[in-house]
Amino acid sequence: MKLKNLIPLHVLKEERAVDLSKIALDPHARVFDNLKKLAPNLDIETLKIGGLDPNAGPDDGTAEAYIESAMDKSGKPLSDQELDKLTDENIEDVIAIAIEYFGDINA
Hints:
Elements: H1 9-12, E1 16-19, H2 33-38, E2 42-52, H3 57-60, E3 66-72, H4 80-89, H5 91-100
Antiparallel strand pairs: 1-2, 2-3
């Protein structure tokens, strides 16, 4: 067998997102508590979490979750730098939210 004809596994990975603005969610759900305390100006209902792999299931499929987009409460989109910082400082919460809403990927 020729190894050069094999497709690397990362090429087959299907990365998707869950857009909380497109689903019915309870913004007062406990899964949002820490994030709301640490980022009180964040509009939870505008979160879009990317880096999800629907083929891997909720636990493994959320390992690379990150906040893809969001707005503050005034309706202003967060910058890439703000999104990166928010994800980095709250990665456990981002993953918990991704797991909670995993069934709504690309709803």
